[in-house]
Design a protein that fits this description.
The complex is a heterodimer. In chain A, 86% of the residues lie in helices and 0% in strands. Chain A is an all-alpha fold. Chain A has one domain. By secondary structure, chain B is mostly helical. The chains are: A mainly alpha, B mainly alpha. At the A-B interface, helix 4 and helix 5 of A face helix 1 of B.
């Protein structure tokens, strides 16, 4: 049972997390700049139509799998982590809080605004323009949060925690 | 004042700064 819970659970958590954060970095480090350049030669529409929806699909669902797998791994230690009840669970608790804020950011802010940008939800030109700015900043905020989140996640287990936090 | 999140460099620097601040706070919280 431990193998399934910690072995498979952590494996799934990390795989989905790589996809989620990888696509987050793709959007921020590659996609945004590419879209700006592609406006000039008419390629932007093709990227917006064929690349963005697919990338967003895997982005938001990878976030769900990552978060659910994370909660599953924590199991009955969820309150120890989120409420910092036990010293050993403080680093993973901070990582879990940051990951949860990022997850809510994806589903409550980024995706509803992306729906307006992609034309999947009705919106006026002004609303689309505002949605672009909100999505951009929310996505950049998730890049900021991802850095300490990955630090605390990767430094929260066994030898690593002792080395980093004493 | 320019929003640091408008540039990738500013975004990464904000991430590093937040990591350092949280690391310090967690060390204090853990009594290190």
């Amino acid at each position: 049972m431990d193998f399934l819970h910690f072995g498979v659970g952590r494996w799934v958590h990390i795989m989905a997390g790589v996809m989620w954060v990888g696509l987050l970095y793709y959007f921020n480090f590659v996609h945004a700049a590419a879209m700006k350049d592609a406006q000039g030669d008419g390629g932007a529409q093709a990227i917006a139509r064929h690349v963005a929806p697919r990338a967003l699909f895997y982005f938001r669902w990878a976030a769900v799998v990552t978060w659910l797998a994370g909660m599953w791994i924590l199991g009955d230690k969820v309150d120890e982590a989120f409420l910092f009840k036990e010293r050993a669970y403080v680093p993973i608790g901070v990582g879990a809080w940051l990951g949860t804020i990022m997850f809510v950011n994806v589903w409550a802010i980024i995706w509803p605004n992306q729906r307006k940008i992609l034309g999947l939800a009705p919106a006026s030109a002004d609303e689309v323009s505002r949605a672009r700015r909100v999505t951009f900043l929310a996505s950049r905020l998730n890049v900021v949060l991802s850095m300490p989140m990955l630090f605390f996640m990767s430094a929260s287990g066994g030898l690593f925690r002792t080395a980093v936090f004493g | 004042m320019k929003n640091p999140l408008d540039s990738l460099t500013g975004t990464v620097l904000c991430g590093l700064a937040l990591t350092a601040v949280l690391y310090y706070l967690v060390l204090r919280l853990m009594g290190g």
